[in-house]
Write a structure and sequence with these properties.
alpha+beta, 5-stranded mixed β-sheet, 149 residues, globular, 28% strand, Alpha-Beta Plaits, 41% helix, 5 helices, two-stranded antiparallel sheet
Length: 149
Protein backbone atom coordinates (compact mmCIF):
# COMPACT_ATOMS: atom_id res chain seq x y z
CA UNK A 1 0.00 0.00 0.00
CA UNK A 2 2.82 2.35 0.90
CA UNK A 3 4.43 1.72 -2.51
CA UNK A 4 1.14 2.47 -4.23
CA UNK A 5 0.93 5.84 -2.46
CA UNK A 6 4.52 6.71 -3.47
CA UNK A 7 3.75 5.64 -7.03
CA UNK A 8 0.62 7.83 -7.18
CA UNK A 9 2.42 10.85 -5.73
CA UNK A 10 5.30 10.41 -8.21
CA UNK A 11 2.85 10.07 -11.09
CA UNK A 12 1.04 13.22 -10.00
CA UNK A 13 4.26 15.23 -9.71
CA UNK A 14 5.64 14.13 -13.08
CA UNK A 15 2.34 14.58 -14.89
CA UNK A 16 2.11 18.19 -13.72
CA UNK A 17 5.35 19.30 -15.32
CA UNK A 18 4.64 21.35 -18.39
CA UNK A 19 7.61 21.14 -20.70
CA UNK A 20 6.89 23.27 -23.72
CA UNK A 21 9.34 23.01 -26.56
CA UNK A 22 10.59 26.40 -27.66
CA UNK A 23 12.24 26.85 -31.05
CA UNK A 24 14.03 29.96 -32.21
CA UNK A 25 11.84 31.58 -34.83
CA UNK A 26 14.78 31.66 -37.26
CA UNK A 27 15.06 27.85 -36.95
CA UNK A 28 11.38 27.28 -37.75
CA UNK A 29 10.49 26.08 -41.25
CA UNK A 30 6.93 27.43 -40.95
CA UNK A 31 5.74 29.88 -43.60
CA UNK A 32 3.01 32.40 -42.83
CA UNK A 33 0.84 34.40 -45.22
CA UNK A 34 -0.59 37.69 -43.95
CA UNK A 35 -2.80 39.20 -46.62
CA UNK A 36 -4.54 42.55 -46.26
CA UNK A 37 -7.61 42.62 -48.50
CA UNK A 38 -10.08 45.35 -49.37
CA UNK A 39 -13.65 44.16 -49.65
CA UNK A 40 -14.84 45.07 -53.14
CA UNK A 41 -17.62 47.68 -52.90
CA UNK A 42 -20.20 45.52 -54.66
CA UNK A 43 -19.56 42.52 -52.36
CA UNK A 44 -22.32 41.57 -49.94
CA UNK A 45 -21.50 40.46 -46.40
CA UNK A 46 -23.64 37.35 -46.90
CA UNK A 47 -21.51 36.43 -49.95
CA UNK A 48 -18.30 37.02 -47.97
CA UNK A 49 -19.52 34.90 -45.09
CA UNK A 50 -20.62 32.05 -47.33
CA UNK A 51 -17.42 32.17 -49.37
CA UNK A 52 -15.11 32.16 -46.34
CA UNK A 53 -17.01 29.21 -44.84
CA UNK A 54 -16.70 27.23 -48.08
CA UNK A 55 -13.03 27.95 -48.73
CA UNK A 56 -12.12 27.34 -45.08
CA UNK A 57 -13.91 23.96 -45.14
CA UNK A 58 -12.06 23.09 -48.35
CA UNK A 59 -8.65 23.94 -46.87
CA UNK A 60 -9.46 22.07 -43.66
CA UNK A 61 -10.55 18.98 -45.57
CA UNK A 62 -7.80 18.83 -48.19
CA UNK A 63 -4.72 20.48 -46.71
CA UNK A 64 -3.46 18.71 -43.60
CA UNK A 65 -0.21 20.66 -44.01
CA UNK A 66 -2.02 23.93 -43.23
CA UNK A 67 -1.49 24.77 -39.55
CA UNK A 68 -3.70 27.88 -39.28
CA UNK A 69 -6.19 29.53 -41.59
CA UNK A 70 -8.44 32.45 -40.72
CA UNK A 71 -10.31 35.45 -42.10
CA UNK A 72 -10.63 38.56 -39.91
CA UNK A 73 -12.98 41.39 -40.87
CA UNK A 74 -12.73 45.04 -39.81
CA UNK A 75 -15.54 46.61 -37.79
CA UNK A 76 -16.65 48.70 -40.76
CA UNK A 77 -16.65 45.55 -42.96
CA UNK A 78 -14.43 47.16 -45.62
CA UNK A 79 -11.26 45.13 -45.11
CA UNK A 80 -10.20 41.58 -44.34
CA UNK A 81 -6.98 40.11 -43.02
CA UNK A 82 -6.34 36.56 -44.20
CA UNK A 83 -3.89 34.66 -42.01
CA UNK A 84 -2.47 31.34 -43.18
CA UNK A 85 0.34 29.24 -41.70
CA UNK A 86 2.00 26.25 -43.36
CA UNK A 87 4.44 23.60 -42.17
CA UNK A 88 7.11 24.73 -44.62
CA UNK A 89 7.74 26.33 -48.01
CA UNK A 90 6.79 23.17 -49.89
CA UNK A 91 3.40 23.12 -48.14
CA UNK A 92 2.87 26.81 -48.88
CA UNK A 93 3.64 26.15 -52.55
CA UNK A 94 1.17 23.23 -52.66
CA UNK A 95 -1.50 25.53 -51.26
CA UNK A 96 -0.69 28.35 -53.68
CA UNK A 97 -0.80 25.97 -56.67
CA UNK A 98 -4.07 24.43 -55.49
CA UNK A 99 -5.60 27.87 -54.95
CA UNK A 100 -4.45 29.15 -58.35
CA UNK A 101 -5.87 26.12 -60.17
CA UNK A 102 -8.96 25.67 -57.99
CA UNK A 103 -12.58 26.70 -58.03
CA UNK A 104 -12.15 29.51 -55.46
CA UNK A 105 -9.62 31.66 -57.34
CA UNK A 106 -11.96 33.76 -59.50
CA UNK A 107 -14.57 34.22 -56.77
CA UNK A 108 -11.84 35.32 -54.32
CA UNK A 109 -10.84 38.21 -56.57
CA UNK A 110 -14.47 39.16 -57.23
CA UNK A 111 -14.96 39.64 -53.49
CA UNK A 112 -11.55 41.03 -52.51
CA UNK A 113 -8.80 43.29 -53.83
CA UNK A 114 -5.35 42.66 -52.34
CA UNK A 115 -3.70 45.63 -50.64
CA UNK A 116 -0.62 43.92 -49.20
CA UNK A 117 0.65 40.33 -49.24
CA UNK A 118 3.37 39.55 -46.68
CA UNK A 119 5.01 36.16 -46.31
CA UNK A 120 7.16 35.40 -43.28
CA UNK A 121 9.54 32.49 -42.99
CA UNK A 122 12.00 30.67 -45.21
CA UNK A 123 10.43 30.61 -48.68
CA UNK A 124 12.08 28.64 -51.47
CA UNK A 125 13.14 30.10 -54.79
CA UNK A 126 10.61 27.72 -56.39
CA UNK A 127 7.81 29.37 -54.41
CA UNK A 128 9.04 32.86 -55.34
CA UNK A 129 9.21 31.89 -59.01
CA UNK A 130 5.66 30.46 -58.94
CA UNK A 131 4.34 33.61 -57.23
CA UNK A 132 6.07 35.92 -59.68
CA UNK A 133 4.91 33.94 -62.74
CA UNK A 134 1.31 34.11 -61.48
CA UNK A 135 1.30 37.84 -60.78
CA UNK A 136 1.42 37.74 -56.99
CA UNK A 137 3.26 40.76 -55.58
CA UNK A 138 4.68 39.64 -52.25
CA UNK A 139 6.71 41.32 -49.53
CA UNK A 140 8.97 38.50 -48.23
CA UNK A 141 10.24 38.84 -44.67
CA UNK A 142 12.72 36.72 -42.73
CA UNK A 143 13.06 36.34 -38.99
CA UNK A 144 15.54 38.48 -37.10
CA UNK A 145 14.49 37.19 -33.67
CA UNK A 146 11.63 35.51 -31.83
CA UNK A 147 10.43 32.05 -30.87
CA UNK A 148 7.76 29.44 -31.57
CA UNK A 149 6.29 27.30 -28.78
Amino acid sequence: MKNLIYFCISLLIFSCTNETMVTKNSDSKAVTFIIDLAVNPDSKIEDLTQFTKEITANVLEKEDFCLEYGYYISEDKTSITLYEKYIDSESALKHAQSFREGAFFDKFFKLFAPNKFIITGPVSDEFKEFASENGFVIDYRNSIDGFVR
